[in-house]
């Protein structure tokens, strides 16, 4: 599968490498440096390149490139997933922002991790919890494993993401349902594109080897059963979803119950995407009028559509203005607004915005005379926000049950947060 794996800095110097097969040579690093790092290309380059019958799959972490080289016909998404998991493993050992110097100072550790996570080019054990049982930083005192058979069973067994014998003074589960909304509205308010990407993050502090049952909405349908009676206007239709490997997929297909033995600590239980029946948290109505070549009148109304019991935070409306703007006279009914020359926009900010409320902005923009006769392109209005205890998709946690032989009591907390995605735009 993967013939060679190496880390390269931004200058093209190989920091560390490991060769798993003999069908490639160290000279491939020169090909990558010259034709990928040295290429003068605009925009974002693809993470996959074929050079001289070798395929390079790579990703970047700060100033380090993680590069996998192969001559086989492999699934590139699997290789990318392995590289990103490799980054997460190194972050667990060296810190989130590990640098080239930190890598060089821990060569022995990295070679151990390279050998344990891959064998003859095939990914093996990449579970952080299991790796930490028998691979430690030199300065840390190694944990004594009394039962070697238990360790071997965990490494090779079906539940390698959780070790046995975990104990906590308080048994707690924290659940975060995090959603990002991407939207594009037309000038008339029609929806051109809408999408919600969500994830269910968990932080479990549970004793023993408990089994958890996790339920979402009563009326929940996934892409393959959208046409069933379960999918309706009152339900939630998920286009696609992926789960952590601890989840029993057979039970989810049968009754939409998510059953799993959780890892200890933080992990992502599932990711999902929704494109229908989205509850948009804000409505923006804009009226832009150009008065000749010297003035522009702007009127914008921002409305919060969620419950009045909720409050949005960090709301920022970015209203574009022509680049030759001389000054802006701005009035708002709520919040603060100012002209930002570097952004060629009016930034309308509200630290706290109650649901079912409105705020108006009016601006008289004076333009400087210019010989450029090109018409103003009118970029879209952008909106950033964060709304706690609200989900745009309608997804909510119905129940979480924890089963353990000892029958202990578990405290549970659920939090919802919806934020603007990469683009929440309204054309003007």
TrEMBL record:
SUPFAM superfamilies: Second domain of Mu2 adaptin subunit (ap50) of ap2 adaptor, SNARE-like. GO terms for biological process: endocytosis; intracellular protein transport. PROSITE patterns: CLAT_ADAPTOR_M_2, MHD. The keyword Protein transport applies. Residues 170-427 form the MHD domain. It is found in: Cell membrane; Membrane, Coated pit. GO terms for cellular component: clathrin adaptor complex; clathrin-coated pit; plasma membrane. It comes from the Eukaryota. InterPro entries: Adaptor_comp_med_subunit, AP2_Mu_C_sf, AP2_Mu_N, AP_mu_sigma_su, Clathrin_mu, Clathrin_mu_CS, Longin-like_dom_sf, MHD. It is a peripheral membrane protein. Keywords: Cell membrane, Coated pit, Endocytosis, Membrane, Protein transport, Transport. PANTHER family: AP COMPLEX SUBUNIT MU. Belongs to the adaptor complexes medium subunit family. This is MHD domain-containing protein. It comes from Triparma retinervis. The lineage of its organism: Eukaryota, Sar, Stramenopiles, Ochrophyta, Bolidophyceae.
